[in-house]
Amino acid sequence: MSYNLKEELQKEDRLSGGHRMCAGCGSPIAVRTVLRALNPEDHAVVCSATSCLEVSTFMYPYTAWQDSFIHNAFENAGATMSGVETAYKAMKKRGKIDETWKFIAFGGDGGTYDIGFQSLSGAMERGHDMVYVCYDNEAYMNTGIQRSSSTPHFADTTTTPAGSVIPGKPQQKKNLTKIMVAHGIPYAAQTTFIGNFSDISTKAHKAIYTSGPAFLNVMAPCPRGWRYPSEKLMEITKAAVETCVWPLYEVVEGKYILSYKPKQKLPVEEYLKMQGRFAHMFKKGNEWMIEQVQKEVDKNWEELLKLCEL
Amino acid sequence: MGIRERLSGNEAVALAMKQINPDVMGAFPITPSTEIPQYFSAYVDNGQVDTEFIPVESEHSAMSTCIGAEAAGCRAISATSSCGLCYMTEMLYVAASDRLPITLAVSCRALSGPININNDHSDAMGVRDAGWLMLFAETNQEAYDNYLQAMRIGEAVGLPIMVCQDGFITSHAIENIELVEDEKVKAFVGEYKPQHYLLNKDEPMAVGAYATPVYYMEAKRQQAQAMMDAKDVIKKVGAEFGQMTGRTYGMIEKYEMDDAEEAIVIIGSSAGTAKEAVNELRAQGKKVGLVKVRAFRPFPAEEICEALKNVKSFAVMDKDDSFNGHCGPMYAEVTASLYAAGVSAPRGISYIYGLGGRDVRVESIQRVFGELGEIAKTGVTGETYRYLDVRE
Known about the structure:
- The complex is a heterodimer.
- Chain A is an alpha/beta fold.
- Chain A has a single domain (5-307), classed as Thiamin diphosphate (ThDP)-binding fold, Pyr/PP domains (Rossmann fold), CATH 3.40.50.
- Chain A contains 12 helices and 8 strands.
- An 8-stranded mixed sheet of chain A has the order 2-1-3-4-6-5-7-8, sandwiched between helices.
- In chain A, helix 2 crosses helix 8 (198-209) and helix 4 packs parallel to helix 6.
- The longest helix of chain A has 21 residues, at 287-307.
- Chain B has 13 helices and 16 strands.
- A 7-stranded mixed sheet of chain B has the order 3-2-4-5-7-6-13, sandwiched between helices. Chain B has a 6-stranded mixed sheet with strand order 10-12-11-14-15-16, with helices on both faces. In chain B, strands 1-8 form a two-stranded antiparallel ribbon.
- The A-B interface holds A 43, 45, 47, 54-55, 58-61, 63, 65-73, 75-76, 78-91, 93-94, 96-97, 99, 101, 118-119, 121-122, 125-126 and B 23-24, 26, 50-52, 54-58, 60-61, 64-74, 76, 90-91, 94, 198-201, 204-212, 215.
């Protein structure tokens, strides 16, 4: 089936406009794109971990969600959706419903890499037929830009400020996609917003219509936390892919498949320089930090190519 | 006529679950409630129920799955104890505020630390303000009977309900029990038909809103109303259960209270021990009595005031401590109820007892009555905050 953005956009939005997310935020873009990948006739229950997304889209008495929606807490979108999906099985078995429902959970990196990690791991291991989508903006943005285990090396956050002794986050970003792959789930993928959105749309459709648990990791920049002008969003995600900071790939039944290989891999500066959170790395005397990040990106990229048998 | 059996409290509760055949169970093992999901898993794996069982990775997730399943339109259940109940505390509040009538079996156990696996009520009392209905059982029979009534009560008012029994004392001890026939259970409990639920294709639903100060307090006020409304439901369901089985239940049970001058207020299995103490003292001509609290949430304030208004002295027995420096949690609620009702004549003391499985014997309770007799005679209450059977 060929992908056509214009046709995709004809579908009715399942997340209504008028919610309170910031301009230039990647999260609602990720949500709208993933939900567009649902076959329009299919019903869905959407779950969100406590996050910017949740508090901005479901403020009583308004909801931006066209589908049934449940928010429970910060750390348990995986378990909550496990319960909903199991209820579906129970009701179907007992003949209480006969239509098809799909189950999609969203969490930020805080709710996914960190506090919700156990709940997600449990849900994936138990094999619930659901998709868990992490909109990864690389810090706890809802509480005001604190570091998470997804925050990249040296990034300036409010709990890892670029200080005179410790220059930003001392640790590297955790590779959650690989950890999800290690659960032996049938589908896992890493994606972001590129070009005509074919990559994320195709992966979302595969994730939703793969039987069993699926995981999507979507780089979803945050203009406040990353400090970029809101209109630069798509330039940043493109730079992340072209520098191999955020490679696009999928893992189908354990097999790694690279989705995109840059013709010419750009140096990491091209990505870092666009964002205020990395500004201190460009000060005189801090060249070593950029060199260090380049080494780390190169190592991860080489490893990924090997996994993809390229 | 019911079916005569010999069962442990845990097995009796698991059997009640089997007879009800709920839609979803999410549970994680913890002593002493572990047997409940164990027995239930065997029912699932042997096709004796068609419930979907979710073997979650923690109690937090157990309650999270119950919230998801109940919101989706199912009857969801779980079982836990002690630290497990603590670990799901955050979710207990969400379940109550989302108005999801989940049923949770609790085999009560002490909290760490020191780590201890034996019975007291620190776990259940620690979550007493989470917005759940709470029933306590004295015996295995009551644990079973309370479980059969729980869903009727919770679903009528839209609140989750805890069915508590004493870890090991009733959860593991085997007693004679009279079971209700399967078809009668099914007819009594009925089908769950939620008004609104996630998996309703004709009406999407959103659960778990963010509420600003403009709306938050009204949501809480409605929860408070549901809790108040539950009193009549508990009595009505208890009476109906009595018509079916001959075992009628209310908010409290009064034992030898008609002419009692000294009384104790107690909850759980120790009520049985205390009844024996009352029997022996009555045989000696002492006018002693007992009030057993069956429903702790909603709190039976009126019933307790009515029962205690004519006594000279009373002790409230708490199997846990509030660590507030002056009394146990049930004492605080009993005395608040009396004060609000303008009942000031009875002199009351708070007794903390049985922590971490410390044995509670007939003589222990008799000693409490002895002190109540002194207080009644002299009119001097003395220290109101006391520990029973402890090395000082």
